[in-house]
Amino acid sequence: PGEWRAFQLSVVGDQAMLKLNGEKAWITEGLSDPTGWLALQVEVPQGGQYEFRKLRVVETGFKDLLPGDLDAWTAIEQKPLDC
C-alpha cells in the first residue's frame, strides 16, 4: 500500500506482453486486429481502489524502407545488388 507500480503493456502484431516493474508478467499470442476502445480494468482483493498516473498511449509503426526489390534503386558506379 502507498507504493507506485510501473506496468508496460506492449502489443505488436498478434502478440501482447505485460511487464510489471520491468519484469515480464505474461505474454500471449493470437490477438485479432485491434480496433475500438482502450480500457484498463483492475481487480482489488477485498475491495478498494487503484490510482493511475502518468498514463501514456504510444502508437508505434514502421515505414518500409525497402519496398519491393532492389531493381527500383539507383546505385552510383555499381549495380544495386553490389552495394
Quick structural overview:
With 83 residues, this protein is mainly beta.
Could you characterize what this model shows?
The chain is mainly beta and 83 residues long. The protein is 0% helix and 23% strand. It is built from no helices and 3 strands. It has a 3-stranded antiparallel sheet, with no helix packed on it. Strand 2 (15-20) and strand 3 form a beta hairpin. The protein is elongated, with a radius of gyration of 22 Å. The N and C termini lie far apart (59 Å). The model has no long low-confidence stretch (mean pLDDT 79).
What general outline do the C-alpha atoms trace? elongated
Number of helices: 0
Radius of gyration using CA atoms only: 22 Å
Structural class given helices, strands, pairing?
mainly beta
What's the rounded overall pLDDT mean? Answer: 79
Low-pLDDT stretches are: none
Q: In percent, how much strand structure appears in the residues?
A: 15-25%
Percent of residues in helices comes to under 10%
Order of helices and strands: EEE
Spatial strand arrangement across the major sheet: 1-2-3
The end-to-end span amounts to 59 Å
Give the total of beta strands.
3
Q: What characterizes the major β-sheet?
A: 3 strands, antiparallel
Q: Secondary-structure blueprint of this entry?
A:
Elements: E1 7-12, E2 15-20, E3 23-29
Antiparallel strand pairs: 1-2, 2-3
Question: What structural keywords apply?
Answer:
83 residues; mainly beta; elongated; 3-stranded antiparallel sheet
